[in-house]
Amino acid sequence: MRLRILTAALLAFAMLPSASAAPPPSRTVVFRGGRVLDGSGGAPLENAAVVVRDGRIVSVGPADKAKVPKGAEVIDFAGKTLLPGLISDHSHVGQTVGTTVGSQNYTRENIERQLRQFAAYGVTTVTALGMNRPLFNEVRKQAHADTFTGADLFGAGQGIGVPEGGPPQAMTNNAPDQLFRPATAEEARAAVRTLAKNRVDLVKVWVDSFLGKVPKMKPDIYQAVIDESHKQGLRVAAHIHDLEDARAVVAVGVDIIAHGVRDQPVDAAFIQEMKKRGVWYVPTLELDEATVVYADLPTLVDDPLLAPALSPELRAQFQDAAWRKKTLEDPKADEARHALSTNQTNLKALYDAGVKVGFGTDSGATPLRIPGYAEHRELKLMVIAGLTPVQALAVATGNAADLLKLKDRGRIAPGRRADLLLVEGDPSTDITAVDRIASVWRQGRQVAGPLTGTAQPAPQP
Ligand SMILES: [Zn+2]
């Protein structure tokens, strides 16, 4: 039964070869005659050709100058735009199924399903920023393999929270093996050493108080985490909400601010410090939008872009008038609206000042933050915040790869992986064009076509 359901879910994304397929024979693909947005933030290249061989980009340039190797598969993409696959610097995997959240959902089957969902939406690389169980290492290794047809996976292992504090157990329903909650600086250092031994890609630390509901992380703990991480050659991403906490972690050397500042406008001193220290900033605008948008906009449930990712359980919840009323009456609704608008203002200020901005949504952390769909919402919210579509797409591709120090992807340039997103129309002038997916490619192999159908019931643990 479970297998049949999973198969149906895969078909919903028009997925191509299965994960167990042998590596394909070497081959050359030439995309010819369309528009290329290369992920660098520069102007699009019109009437371009991109040559891909054995999973890597060989050349990009004008179509009339391109040499088409003998035997190459030629794809005429006139009227379409080729982009690097999107890269999330802040998501989670294995937390949610339907409307449930908790450790029971951290299964290989569910994580693979989510990684395929990300890929179907054009997100070809995902960072699971904490709350991972020991299974993570195995799944990450599999996702790195070029036979896997879902998104590639990086992550922070468990991550480091606060005893009785963030991330609140009531919200995450985590098992004890999903987080370190050190009570002393020495315990914090020991946690980092364990993470380093497990070769995490980043260290995650939860600092803030979740709007005053739980105790904050004490400065001596996050200082110890940052210091020990740097000794181990690792960088630290901090969960914050308020400017005060962002300022405090930046002052002691944090590398990545993993959420936008959402309580007040950022000031010149903070912007200056972020720039001087080269700290990355990942706004996660969609996090707060997701808290209220499905109650605010009941018609969103019919968004065709959402259908392939919307489980029947979540659909029923969004259509439930009582749920919508409760959501709108909750004080969290207004807090989230305020947080989103502050976050957008701050993003524009920081981006324009030259602060390094990465791409993330916190998708997958709760049922409302829907993998793949969330990333498409985030792009629109960035444009509403005042970034141009080209800037927003560069953040979601080239910048997002730079944040992860991945020099093998994120741009359409010779030598990079052919992780590609082909869309109808011109997202450089209309960001919604990125929703009209024609195909998704991973290492030169097509892994998804147009988004079609509706999501099937998710696998039950
Ligand atoms: Zn998160």
UniProtKB/TrEMBL annotation:
Domain of life per record: Bacteria
Cited Pfam families: Amidohydro_1 (PF01979)
PANTHER family reported for this sequence: ALPHA-D-RIBOSE 1-METHYLPHOSPHONATE 5-TRIPHOSPHATE DIPHOSPHATASE
Signal peptide limits: 1-21
Limits of the Amidohydrolase-related domain: 81-447
Xref: InterPro entries: Amidohydro-rel (IPR006680), Metal-dep_hydrolase_composite (IPR011059), Metal_Hydrolase (IPR032466), Metallo-dep_Hydrolase (IPR051781), OTAase-like (IPR057744)
Keyword annotations: Hydrolase, Signal
Name this protein carries in UniProt: Amidohydrolase family protein
GO MF terms held by the record: hydrolase activity, acting on carbon-nitrogen (but not peptide) bonds
